[in-house]
Amino acid sequence: MAFHYPNGRRFVPQAMEEKKSPLKKISFSNRGKTLEDDLNETNQYYLAHGIAVIHKKPTPIQIVDVHYPKRSAAVIKEAYFKQASTTDYNGVYKGKYIDFEAKETKNSSSFPLKNFHDHQIEHMKHIVQHDGIAFVIIRFSAMDDIYLMSSEQLSFYWKRMKEGGRKSITLQEVESSSRKITLGFQPRIDYIKVVDSLIAENF
Amino acid sequence: MAFHYPNGRRFVPQAMEEKKSPLKKISFSNRGKTLEDDLNETNQYYLAHGIAVIHKKPTPIQIVDVHYPKRSAAVIKEAYFKQASTTDYNGVYKGKYIDFEAKETKNSSSFPLKNFHDHQIEHMKHIVQHDGIAFVIIRFSAMDDIYLMSSEQLSFYWKRMKEGGRKSITLQEVESSSRKITLGFQPRIDYIKVVDSLIAENF
């Protein structure tokens, strides 16, 4: 029996999501962790080593009902998931404002744009207007390939979709318009190296 | 009958919190809004006028139980408030990373340090180490006086408390070590003006 999120996406239980791919191209691949887990570990590494301070924002929740039991913690009894108006991750690197969203797909030939929504694209445009650094980290989980795409590039594909074009970015397009992030042990997803080259080009 | 938050603070219903002060020194004072409301309006103004992109982070929640009803939105049935590991507000201004916490007190002679916690003080130190701009906005609700105090100054008073000193910052100390923010109509709390002078001094 299939369950669905409010946005229509199918609910996939953890056990199914963590199914390993039979492909094992590099030693650190497919340890069964989500992109979010890997990024949280990476951000902890950056913090502990004085490289950058980047945190994931809490999930936005609409709280409807809270109980205040005597002598114990307040309990939220009814609440709903809200759509985020910004991206999930932000922070500071060498004084610069860093802002990104991270998404993964099981699709191995293209990256579906339904992973993002208008508010996030708008938010990233604002960040760039204010000289911040905005991008998305996308993962093809079948191959465990991870790319960093600038918000300008993403906006290009988003606009193409809005004008009636395809609803995804082909793997070939991703390869030619993004930078691949080599997976490592510590940090797992060393995206700051790519940010360095973005800074070198734009600032 | 008194209810208490997990941290021991008394739960004050909205109606009581919004009680107006009899003092009316300036025209825009005490409209019965919380500091958070005023800052959200201010941040919306900054966004709409292309001045800065600063958002409040969602409240961190520990979700324990979620129901997925057929054909309707997922409902969170049990969740708890978590202590934030960072500050509430962050964003970008002229390419620079901005990070702050906002707190108000009903006390009219001093600002209690229990409004902050160790994680937040540590977080702000990290931000400063990475050349970000970190501060707190504090409001004395009885007088509707609002101040911006740099994280370095706050750390000084925090350290004094940790070493056995007083558990609050006297109003006189706040006045001499912070900058007062003049309240306006739009934006309500124009803290970016003060940030400008911080940048002029430090960067």
From TrEMBL, chains A, B:
Q: Which cellular component, as a GO term, is one annotated location?
A: cytoplasm
Q: Where does it primarily localize?
A: cytoplasm
Location in the cell: Cytoplasm
GO molecular function list: crossover junction DNA endonuclease activity; magnesium ion binding; nucleic acid binding
UniProt GO BP: chromosome segregation; DNA recombination; DNA repair
Sorted alphabetically, the keyword list is: Cytoplasm, DNA damage, DNA recombination, DNA repair, Endonuclease, Hydrolase, Magnesium, Metal-binding, Nuclease
Cofactor-binding details, from the entry = Binds 1 Mg(2+) ion per subunit.
The main enzyme category here is hydrolase
Enzyme Commission number(s): 3.1.21.10
Q: Does the keyword Magnesium apply?
A: yes
Which residues does this entry assign to the site Transition state stabilizer? K103
The cofactor(s) it depends on are: Mg(2+)
Q: Which InterPro entries match?
A: Resolv_RecU (IPR004612), Restrct_endonuc-II-like (IPR011335), tRNA_endonuc-like_dom_sf (IPR011856)
Q: Where along this sequence does the record place binding of Mg(2+)?
A: T86, D88, E101, Q120
Superkingdom is: Bacteria
**Catalytic reaction(s) noted:** Endonucleolytic cleavage at a junction such as a reciprocal single-stranded crossover between two homologous DNA duplexes (Holliday junction)
Specify whether Transmembrane is a keyword of the entry: no
Main role? Answer: Endonuclease that resolves Holliday junction intermediates in genetic recombination. Cleaves mobile four-strand junctions by introducing symmetrical nicks in paired strands. Promotes annealing of linear ssDNA with homologous dsDNA. Required for DNA repair, homologous recombination and chromosome segregation.
What's this protein's family per the entry? Belongs to the RecU family.
> Which protein is depicted?
Holliday junction resolvase RecU
Q: Which gene encodes it?
A: recU
